[in-house]
Amino acid sequence: MEFNKKIYGGHHGARKFWREMLPRIKFRNPAIPIEISRHEQAEGPSLLHIYTTAFPPDTSTNPATKAPTPPSSTPNAQNTLTPDTAKPEHTIDIRSMSELTILEQLIAKTGAEVIEMTPEEQEEWEEVQKFKETSERDRQTVRDKLMRERHEQELMRIARGDAA
């Protein structure tokens, strides 16, 4: 995946996909090598390259020829199983796409299976959502209280004749 470091020039969806969707994909698929390339040019490319032939052939039936497990993370390009000379099987231009559209394109191109949340994960998700709602209400309450205090201080300053 390659995109601009900033959101300008249509790279917003790519950045959100990288921050929100890619960690979830990596969590469910730890053996898939992922490489991210971020550049400085707003007019530069915003592409998602999909390599489906990066892994060696399946040798799980014969333990003597079993290939090593791919790394769970890709700290640098030298550790990925994607060869530099290999041509990607699919390339998606993700400029000006939303993160959900990018995910849909990725699923369509790879034929990936969408995994539904387990009941435990669903409960955890609902708990996090309730926490976020409560946090927002609390933030608004604190903000309102602070604004009232500042307004009262301003009125007291005007009443004392300290206003400029």
TrEMBL record:
GO (cellular component) term, any one: ribonucleoprotein complex
Stretches for region Disordered: 53-88
Predominant localisation class: mitochondrion
Keyword Ribosomal protein attached: yes
SUPFAM superfamilies: Thioredoxin-like (SSF52833)
Compartments in which it is found: Mitochondrion
Keywords for the protein's UniProt record, in alphabetical order: Mitochondrion, Ribonucleoprotein, Ribosomal protein
Domain Ribosomal protein/NADH dehydrogenase: 6-113
GO molecular function: structural constituent of ribosome
Pfam families (alphabetical): L51_S25_CI-B8 (PF05047)
PANTHER family: MITOCHONDRIAL RIBOSOMAL PROTEIN S25, SMALL RIBOSOMAL SUBUNIT PROTEIN MS25
The protein's name in its UniProt record: Ribosomal protein/NADH dehydrogenase domain-containing protein
Organism listed in the record: Periconia digitata
